[in-house]
Design a protein that fits this description.
binds pyridoxal-5'-phosphate, 4-stranded antiparallel beta sheet, Aspartate Aminotransferase, domain 2, about 400 residues
């Protein structure tokens, strides 16, 4: 059982607002803030390079923390500034050839799809979208039927930005493995709200951010690259960290996933990411998932009692992101009014998940994402405020 009072006492932001947007950028625990400030103060005192050298062992240990958090090896981890950079580093390095097919899902995130479009145009690739099953999750049987010799990549968003869907990432991984197809998994919204194990997922590449459910600082992200790919993938850009200049006309790439990094980094933020991973791991991801998903289920239940509210989450199993609309209520105006009242939720527009928006005819959605540090009382506060906004007087 999580000690919610203690967790809230570690979370200064809970006294500022009712923050229900972990899928945007969650509230950092004080331990994360302390790690960032502490490193920054060391830089102030002794200089940036010197602070890095002084804290080298702790900063190196962040790779171990990421690796153990997702069941990977330390040499399979690259630390970068966000999930998109992580994802793109793997995607653009993959040696796809003319005529290759990319299989993706309806819930795919806009940034990923834009990259598909760019490479499809440049490298003559074909993008094929795996249809959803009746619940809206990736249809495993449809995926299996789509496999042929031209599939060069399966790239899926595990949990989308726009709602509670949880795609069957591990099932997809089994199919990718069976047919020996590279599998790139966007785990940006999954990491920090549930256990993640790259072995169980059978993925070759996994990208994630620090700032969402992991409760790390903005400007942090990481990429997992399965060891077997490390000697194969040539990063699209290299520098003097990812490669060494061996002789005037020769260079040699690093042997580990850090070949996808560059030399300069924010070590203060990296220290914060390390503290966030430690904090989450100490609490335990199974307990975090149970609490966050439980709160989200409660919120769905309360919202469903608002007569004009429609829950918009796809999938049969739902995570800690709750998406909804209220008849005749402008989501942007509602979110603004909630912010004015100190209740933080967000919106998700069709352009961030266009295929899903077209397939389900979705308008702009409101999205709320409770994390384990939130309370039932805060959910109630949100629902009461929405009720007033929607002009209803009885639930
Ligand atoms: C599913 C998904 N993938 C990728 C991203 C991009 O993450 P970042 O902003 O860290 O690049 C997001 C951000 O919201 C997301 O929701």
């Amino acid at each position: 059982m999580l000690d919610i009072e203690q967790i809230r006492s570690h979370t200064p932001g809970v006294s500022e607002s009712t923050h229900l947007l972990a899928c945007g950028s969650a509230l950092m625990p004080q331990q994360v803030v302390d790690a960032i400030i502490d490193h920054t103060q060391l830089e102030v005192r002794i200089g940036g390079y010197e602070a890095h050298a002084y804290r080298k062992a702790e900063l190196e240990a962040v790779y171990d923390l990421v690796a153990s958090h997702i069941g990977a090896k330390t040499n399979e981890i690259a630390l970068v500034e966000n999930a998109t950079v992580a994802w793109c580093q793997a995607f653009y390095a993959l040696p796809l050839k003319s005529g290759d097919r990319i299989l993706t899902c309806e819930a795919e995130y806009a940034a990923n799809y834009l990259a598909f479009l760019q490479r499809a145009r440049r490298d003559n690739l074909k993008i094929d979208v795996i249809p959803g099953d009746a619940s809206g999750a990736v249809d495993i049987r449809a995926l299996e039927a789509m496999i042929d010799d031209n599939v060069g990549l399966i790239a899926i968003t595990w949990i989308p930005t726009n709602g509670g869907l949880v795609n069957p990432a591990a099932e997809i991984g089994k199919i990718a493995r069976k047919h020996n197809i590279p599998y790139l998994l966007d785990a940006c919204q999954a990491v920090g709200q549930m256990p993640v194990d790259v072995g169980e997922l059978h993925c070759d590449f996994l990208s994630a951010t620090g700032r969402k459910f992991l409760r790390g600082p903005r400007g942090t992200g990481f990429l997992y690259v399965a060891e077997k790919w490390l000697d194969i993938l040539e990063p699209v850009t290299i520098d003097l960290f990812s490669a060494s200049w061996e002789s005037v006309n020769e260079y040699k790439l690093r042997r580990d996933a850090r070949r996808f990094e560059t030399w300069e980094n924010s070590y203060a933020l990296r220290a914060g990411l390390g503290a966030a991973l430690k904090y989450a791991d100490d609490l335990g991801l199974a307990g975090i998932q149970q609490r966050a998903w439980g709160l989200a289920a409660s919120l769905r239940q309360m919202l469903s009692m608002l007569k004009t509210c429609q829950i918009r989450d796809a999938g049969s199993e739902n995570c800690a992101i709750v998406s909804f609309t209220i008849d005749n209520v402008d989501p942007f105006a509602a979110v603004r009014e909630l912010h004015r009242q100190g209740i933080i939720i967000g919106t998700s527009t069709p352009k961030s998940t266009m295929l899903d928006a077209i397939s389900r005819n979705l308008p702009v959605l409101m999205r709320a994402a409770p994390h384990y540090y939130n309370t039932e009382a805060e959910l109630k506060q949100l629902v009461m405020a929405l009720k007033a906004i929607s002009g209803q007087h009885s639930i």
